[in-house]
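User: We ran a pulldown and think these components assemble together. Before we commit to crystallization trials, I'd like a predicted model of the whole complex to look at. Sequences follow.
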Amino acid sequence: MSVVPDVAATASPVRQQQHWSPSPTSRYVARRVLAAISTFIFVIFFNFFLFRIMPGDPIALYTRGRNVDPIQIHELRARLNAPIMEQFGQYLRNPFTGNGPSVKYSAPVWEVIGPHVWPTILLVGSATIIATIVGVWLGIRSGWNRGGKFDQVSTNTTLVLYSMPEFWFGMIMLIVFAVGVGPIPGLFPTGGISTPGVDTSSVKGVLDVAWHLFLPVTTLAVIYLAEYSLIMRASIIDETSQDYLKTARAKGLMDKMVRRKHAVPNALLPTMTLVFLNLGFVVGGAITIEFVFSINGLGSLTVDALSGPDVPLLQALFLLFSGAVIFANLVADLLYGYFDPRVRT
Amino acid sequence: MRPKSRRTRVLAGGAGLALAIALIAPAIANADSASPSASPSAPPVTFTVGVTTDIDSANPFTGILAESYEIYQLEYPTLTEYSAADFGTVPGLAESWTESADKTTWTYKIRAGLKWSDGVPLTAKDAAYTFNRILNGDYEKTNFGSYVANITKAEAPDDTTLVLTVAKPSPIMAKLSVYILPEHIWKSVDENAVKSYKNEGTEAVPTVGAGPFLMIERRVGQFIRMKANPDFWRGKPAVDEVVFKVYKNGDALGQALKKGEIDFADSLEANVFRSLEGAPGVTTVQAVYSGFSELAFNTGAALDDGTAIGDGNPLLKDKSLRQALGWAIDRQVIVNKVLGGGGTAGSTIIPPLYASLHLDPANPVGYDPAKAKTLLDAAGYPVGADGIRANANGDRLSFRLFVRSDSAESKKSGEFLKGFLNAVGVEVNVKVMSSDALTEIIGQGNFDMFEWGWVVEPDPNYQLSTFICANRSYKDAGSILANLSDSFYCNPAYDALFEQQSTETNVDKRAALVKQMQQMLYDDAPYVVTYYYPNYEAYRSDRFEGLVPQPNPDGALLFQYGTWSYESLRPVTTISPGPSNEPTNQGSSSLNWILIGGLAALVIIVVVVGVTLRRGRENDMNSNEE
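Assistant: Here's a predicted model for the assembly, 971 residues in total across the polymer chains.
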């Protein structure tokens, strides 16, 4: 009775009947992919002009107070201040190189971005996954027994955690669990993602990274929790009033089976959308938590690039972020179409 | 029955796995502590410095941040160095140096028998190579161009002699802060490759240098490891490794020092610094610093050719008005309220830590609002009906004051300055903006007043040059571009003195000229120097000793002009070696226990997940049966 098998059952005959024209499925897929591509093309154009309206004189700012000869400052600036159409042409030939090297780091933009990608994915990615699993579980339990003791405790707790300022909560976690308060020993490191001198490719190195990431990931996951648990709770509550659940119960199924096999699969759809949208934002990093726990993620790199501003670096980052969000959206759309046949037509 | 037996099997498997890991984990943990003890020598001594900014590049031709320069000076020698005691010039790679009688050449006697860290001899040829590379380079000039601008030729007639030919006499020749690079390494990095050359050492291939420490690992945004250079010419340092660990926020930096994860914390925020005072094992140092903060006036923005630009209030061109405003500002209150007690009230643009160059004006301008009012009345700005002063034409003393959003001190200073000036009948509109926006606005001359600061090098030339007429903004291809001047001060008498000091190679005569210039700026008041910054540092005095301040006695212990502290730094030796070793081992032993704990937790999670999945599957089967 769940939705999933239905999709498979209805989709295949349709495809067979209309083999002379594109099936609704492939039309749906094509439409979504085209939409994603056109959005990305728009972003590529928009990206170029967006950062050029920002005020600033990066060379003057970066060289302020340094014993740099004014002649050199002029030359540095000349490299940066090519006519706008010339820059645009250069950009269009290869938008991904971001109009030359980073102004601040004098290195190709992707070389600057590279070392920040993994820490970001490890931090935000694992926090999102943990928050999703735990949040969905909490949401199901709360929503199914709405108003019950579990619901009250879980909803209130997650809401309180959600409303806490990230920086403050992070600092509390750091002081309590990294430095230690009273009888609680400082078990975790105060920052970074690995111990200097430990080879991260060894077993010990991997465990060392896990040890470093434990606090930041936990903090972030706890903050994210309410987002998933509340959505899941709401969708479960929506489903509980549906007739098909009455039917299921009438068949004599155990309450647990009704929830598991009938309510949850249908209620998961909105949460799935949220998960994929958020996965798109994973690469954007978590600026506050990166700052509290000194993690060199893409969030803090973006803040860094904003001062100046370092336009080539910002352009590349913006392109990466929007690309990730567009891609995640596309995946969410396609999966949604797969799981819920209604949206395909 | 069947499901139950399955669950038992899972549990048994999990327990077995846990047991196995419990057996392996101590072995992993021990592997770490075993390896150093396997060697006959003591475990390596690591000095960990917590910093709040990562280096921007390990390539000395590329990096611009102070942290990067700390790395370069640890790796590469310079011809001369700044003494720890008082920034006096002392021998470095060059044992001695002489200016020729006709003042056209400088001859440096390079130390004999030195080696680069890879064993290749270090000679005057390396020095000549480095100077020629900068002279003939384009990109290479960015960081060092101002030092070589006056050099026309660099030659090494033999291995211990370097001869530099100059276009005109220059005192900078005794203080060339140019890092001498190994020719045999850098000659293979051509002028295009140098732009993206990383110069990051690895454990297998450390950076080739000749300073006290060499880079062996860099993780961008995380840390830099450097190991002691046994061939360093002043002797191998007492610590084996120096690690620079990046903390992105000041609170975490303070906590890390308190906990003992780091041994030294630099550039602490005032509140964090106060919280460390009295912490066990920690010594706090409120050092004098080479930076000042100023209230700058738009003294008449113009291009270098004199063409007026910008929308600055023309009233501020009046010297007597600017002087009067100086009397309205209580610098000590700003020091107390903005800097949290550290730092000192400001006067002239060369900070007092450069004792031989700093001018303590004979006619100090202090806080005297009554005098400010009298001076303003005398200058022709009586108080108007609205309480704001105005001149005879009705032009009110109403000014914009721009402060920087990215600096808490700047924003606070702005509020205090506004209050002080209001009190004498001057209207101030404070506007907060990013440093980016303010940089652009200053270059265009579109301001009345702003708050910013400078960090001043031991050589005053650069700082003095920010007030010469030629360094006002300039025009290129139709657009106005900023130069070094941000007050647009222009005074031919000052320019003449600037030229004179820039060619005066007699130290005392030059100091006299520099003081004369400070007096001129003090009287003409393009800036009101509000305060000299403090540098809040703290370190684990229970583990390390022997750090030397620059200047003596109340200067900074690290991030100096020189590597003195790194060379003299040594672990604390107590009578019983036990307690002194304990803190350093604590970290790694707690890591080992955490690792074991983490493994156990992992096993428990695996077991729980396994059991849950099992149960789920059993339920599926049950439901199918139903």
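Residues 1-18 of chain A have pLDDT under 50 and may be disordered. That may be worth checking against your pulldown data before setting up trials.

User: Thanks, that helps.
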